[in-house]
Specification:
10 strands, about 270 residues, single chain, ten-stranded mixed β-sheet, about 25% helix, alpha/beta, Aminopeptidase
Amino acid sequence: MAKSGAISAAALTDGCRAPAQGHRVIELGLPRQGKSMNLTIRSMVQDDVPYVSRIDREAFPTDWPPPSFGKELNSSIIRYIVALNDNEGHWGGDAGPPQPSTGDGWRRWIWRMRHLLGRGDSSPSTDIARDGRRIVGYASLWLLVDEAHLTSIAVRQAQRRQGIGEVLLIGIVKLALEMKASLVTLETRASNAGAQALYEKYGFNRVGTRRRYYSDNGEDAVIMTTDNITSSSFRARFGELERRYVEKYGQPEWQLARPARKQAASR
């Protein structure tokens, strides 16, 4: 159920839109040698939508239709978080979003059709968020009763394998705990060994298979689910993994609370 994009190479190129569409992951392999980063992980806001849309199109160019981020931000059961990196610059010039390579015939055709149908990039020429920091990735979950479904993880291609996908996963688990979920679940492509290794590291277990789950190539999906995330054993393991992440990459700033909605002005 999660669409994860961008940590290794293309090992995590799956799709995860809603709990019914599979896990979208571009590359969530275990990261390379760590380097200190200055990351903020916060709730996504409307101003972020153009930039997150660009990352989503880069990560999942064949998904159709693209997510309705603006509408989903208003849902009580859907949450998005974004990763911002103070150490990075921005997309310069007017090149627009990355295009599929010339060798990807049908993917390039879909990319062009999106633009012809008005689904193309209409965002600014940079991906600097309103607070001046670069959005380098995003993740989302759906809360169904007491189950948090990890639906998407995507990281800018140039920033993959730097621990950003891992910290987004940490953020999703933190968010699930805040939303009083008892477990986190997802689906990922059977061939996506890198993503599966990262999920297993964080306590996800393989609990089943969905045959021919992915419509693009008929690939099976592996269902992965945590144990009870409120248990003392899970929290202890999760806390230790977060501590190790901080030692390797530095302490991220957490701003997971959903911003208060603006009240309509009274007449």
